[in-house]
Amino acid sequence: MRTLILVIGSVFFILSCKKAIKSPEAKTLFRQVPANVSGIDFANNLHYDRNFNIYRYRNFYNGGGVAIGDINNDSLPDIYFTGNMVKNKLYLNKGNFEFEDITLKAGVAGSKAWSTGVSMADVNGDGWLDIYVCNSGDIKGDNKENELFINQQDGTFKEMAASYGLNDRGYSTHAAFFDYDKDGDLDMYLLNNSYKAIGSFNLRQDVREIRDTLGGDKLFRNDANIGMDHFTDVSQEAGIYGSLIGFGLGVTVGDINMDGWQDIYVSNDFFERDYLYLNQHDGTFKEDLTNEMQCTSAASMGADMADINNDGLPDIFVTDMLPSSEKRLKTKTTFEDWNKYQYNVRNGYFHQFIRNMLHLNRGSNTFSDIGRLADVHATDWSWGALMFDMDLDGQKDIFVANGIYQDLTDQDYLSFVSDENTVRNIVKDDSVDFKQLIDSIPSEAVPNSAFQNQGNLGFKDKATEWGLGMASFSNGSAYGDLDNDGDLDLVINNVNMPCFVFQNQATTLLKHHYLKLKFTGSGKNTLAYGAAVNLWAGGQRQYLEHMPIRGFESSMDPDMVFGLGDRSTIDSLEAIFPDGKSIMLKNVPADQTLHLYQTEAIEKEIVPTIINPLFSIIDIKGLDQPHQENEYSDFDRDRLIYQMMSNEGPKLAVGDANNDGLDDIYCGAAKGQSKSICIQQKDGSFKMSVPDAFKGNRENEDMGMAWIDVDGDHDLDLYVCSGGSEDPEASSNLMDRLYINNSAGGNINFTLSPQVLPTFKFESTSCVRPCDIDGDGDMDLFVGMRYKPFYYGLPVNGYMLINDKSNFTNQTSTIAPQLTGCGMITDATWADVNNDHLPDLILCGEYMPIKIFINKGGKFIQENVVSSKGWWNTLAAVDLDGDGDIDIVGGNHGLNSRFKASPTQPIKLYVNDFDQNGTVEQILTSYRENKEFPFALKHDLIAQMPAMKKKYLKYASFAGQTIQDYFPPNIINASVIDSVDFLQTAVFYNDGTGHFTPGTLPIEAQFSPVYAVYCDDFNHDGKLDILLGGNQYRTKPETGRYDASYGQVLLQHENHLFKALSIAHSGIKIIGEVRDIKPIQIKGKKYMVVARNNSTPLIYSY
């Protein structure tokens, strides 16, 4: 939500910008058409005075929109611009990129003081495009009524908003016309922005369902089907929110859940969350965002909906305001802290983060934000969002219009206007000197972004290469084939500078093929808004929905264009009209315009799709005890880390605790939670047991655990690691626990061993792995340390604990000295990796490669699986390829993150007492623009090290500073320095001798950090498959939480290739933070139990 800063009285602030880029070369994909050629000279010029300015009206620089459509039915798309302080303009397309200003003759300049969004639609169903203009502003004497210009079919229009009941007086942003009730005419969703000042809200008051009588979003039903040229406000009965906290900046319509009915996505600015309305087929909508998405943009602005990965499902892209450059990030940006974020969540405003989001539609009513993976998450202060095939290669690209004319988020400016001396100079005799206040605001044009779709969910910004990279203050934008050459041209509305008109040259420069579609609907929906098209060509599917009103305040050319790349023939095409009828065409030549008529469509045969998922979730009585994470914030102590370590449980241990032949479960418990065993009953249910020995360990944080027969009495004892980040090393809460099993006669009884484990001091441990290390017939232990409490980042130890008649001794220095200081260990396992019949140790951790300690006759020698260091969370050692040796699956941080690392540009961690005050700081750096910059923002760094304030009085002096600029060489050289250069979750194939080669996994494996890996033959085809579980919610709002995984099944095919299974086909849809997955036998049948942080376990059959 855009941050507004209180400066003077009730004067509040807003947001951000970027860096000028050189003019494009001549031979670029897009060619700018100058005004003296096109005749289009529109410029949305603004000026302020003391009564109307950015401080009086928060949306002062939001800009205007663009509409493209053929208003005179001559097959040439025309262009309409809205102006804020200038009159709106309509330009008639004369052909050959020449346009004529016909505004006055057409009568569409508008009579209101401040116009915003524009929509083109055949509102009255007469076959001619009409124009609906939203009006806003807070200008004295202006009633802000929206205007509806009805096409008179003679080059003129008549304003008739009041007659149609659409003369709304809210702070209107945009209007979407669509047939939500399938009665054959176009209804309208009106997006309004709240009247109320941001600082006047009490966030603890739940007002979302209280309608604002002056504004609020509205749904208008078109009553043309009952003979009335009039719209009726049905918002209340339809289930549409219209409260004071609605700050709508984008409305996007499409069939989100693919049920044949139009749904709505609304992007809200400021603290209110976005809305996702699912059409209920009965004239009502269900707002379902919090059930379908895990997070949203904070300052949601423009949005668009399209299928970016050609899987036939519409995805949603929403813009925000996160800068991409180092300079602007360090001078323009602040983020909420953890406590403020939690406050917002508790009060119903959901999980919102400052960045663009690309919500990938996963089907089954689920979305995953992959904006960081796709690298489209940071485009500065962004408005227009358009997803269309810019280069006609068959994949939809993303265009983002950026810029704010005066940048109120400049941190030095905010410091300046908050200074007491400044306030005294600006405020005199209860009067504000707005000229001084506003003229001091920085103004910096920024480039727009044009992300080329690289396939496999990857994008690359090619704005400069494509001729679109000039710096500007851009807002609304629209595409359309202005010259009828088959590619989509682009028009952009700018603030305080001339608009941009770009001619697309894809058909001539790239020689790419296309197919254009025109629609004629039946009834009053004459252009068949809401139709959808599936196209297959060269083995590739494309899906487009016919909904021209989209982006930010804008409307696209209604003609639909498919890019085909080098494919000259369409294999088949299916057009589905709003009534469900369809037209199927086959072997269609490319490079033509087809006209599709709804009257020629036929009833579509609906063949039910039957899916038999591999997994089914089941309820097991007694396995519903939730893990309850205690409230603790690592960030209160360690201000410069970016995710917590205090929520890495629960782990699971499955074993027969009472020797009755049935699997029981020890589920790890959080600090402050009772420890217990779930004992399986003969009927397959479970019963909780809390042995007396467990009752004194409530304050321990359970990490890893293992059932192990320590004393050779043929029952299973239990070893539990104690960890977490809350307790200091002096705390006995960090002592690992060994519970000796004394159960008999069906009674559960354990005794706590008096040993101080793993060594004779308290340490935060992560995992325990039993093995007969010395080959004497009893079970020994490997125990891994997670980190040194209060000293995160320092390498810690692994321990070899040898069993001597139930007493464990640390023999690490003798048999595996390289385990000392080997890293921050997260997981380990035993396996014979070199086929010498001796157990080897495999372990992983943060800032570590996956390491193997080869057993050389009882001595262990370290080797690395690969040299790459990662943020590894878990691993599995299995024979994936069936060749008789052990391969490795490593669960890593993934690629859907702000953090990017490679061997040439690693992430580095510097650990030191940098300010010499007795506490350790962690400074994380990355390479940007070939320099090593710390991640920390100025205010965060100074909060941890106040002495740095003297060095960096201004944000401008802080921006662009490297770690070497922060500290002298002696301080840096005294630091513990580690690095990460490999963040992918990956497989590593063994050649049989213990040497490993990395393999590839589908991109879905990189959606979120992986904390659990489970391998089995899920589809019974003789090949091992993989299930990944993960997510991490306790992260700084600055980076945003990692929540894009619902559990990912990867089925193995031939040649070591894996295929990601959809949620519908896998049956796996896990909401939450997965920490462990284990197999279990229940009543003789194999199941899978999934442990989730701060939630209940899940049981799946397969």
Task: Describe this entry's structure for a reader.
With 1102 residues, the protein is mostly beta strands. It has 19 helices and 76 strands. Strands 57, 58, 59, 60 and 61 form a five-stranded antiparallel sheet that branches. A four-stranded antiparallel sheet has the order 1-34-33-32, with no helix packed on it. Strands 2-3-4-5 form a four-stranded antiparallel sheet. β53 and β54 form a beta hairpin. The longest helix is centred in the first third of the chain and has 9 residues.
Query: Which assembly state applies to the chains in this document?
Result: single chain
Mean pLDDT: 95
**How far apart lie the N and C ends?**
43 Å
Radius of gyration: 31 Å
Summarize the structure.
This protein is mainly beta and 1102 residues long. It is 9% helix and 36% strand. The two termini are 43 Å apart.
List keywords for this structure.
1102 residues, mainly beta, 4-stranded antiparallel sheet
List the SSEs and their pairings.
Layout: E1 30-32, H1 35-38, E2 66-69, E3 78-81, E4 89-95, E5 98-101, H2 103-106, E6 115-121, E7 130-135, E8 147-151, E9 157-159, H3 161-164, E10 171-178, E11 187-193, E12 218-222, E13 231-233, H4 235-238, E14 248-254, E15 263-268, E16 275-279, E17 285-287, H5 289-292, E18 296-297, E19 303-306, E20 315-318, H6 326-332, H7 338-346, E21 352-353, E22 357-363, E23 366-369, H8 371-374, E24 382-388, E25 397-402, H9 411-418, H10 420-426, E26 427-428, E27 431-432, H11 434-439, E28 446-447, E29 449-455, E30 458-461, E31 471-472, E32 474-480, E33 489-494, E34 500-504, H12 506-510, E35 513-520, E36 532-537, E37 540-545, E38 549-550, E39 554-555, E40 560-565, E41 569-576, E42 582-589, E43 592-597, E44 616-618, E45 652-655, E46 664-667, E47 677-680, E48 686-689, E49 702-708, E50 717-722, E51 737-741, E52 750-752, E53 764-771, E54 780-787, E55 798-804, E56 807-810, H13 812-815, E57 824-831, E58 840-848, E59 851-856, E60 859-864, E61 870-871, E62 874-878, E63 887-891, E64 907-912, E65 921-928, E66 931-934, H14 938-944, ...
Parallel strand pairs: 18-21, 35-43
Antiparallel strand pairs: 1-34, 2-3, 3-4, 4-5, 6-7, 7-8, 8-9, 10-11, 11-12, 12-13, 14-15, 15-16, 16-17, 19-20, 20-22, 22-23, 24-25, 25-29, 26-27, 28-31, 29-30, 32-33, 33-34, 35-40, 36-37, 36-41, 38-39, 41-42, 44-76, 45-46, 46-47, 47-48, 49-50, 50-51, 51-52, 53-54, 54-55, 55-56, 57-58, 58-59, ...
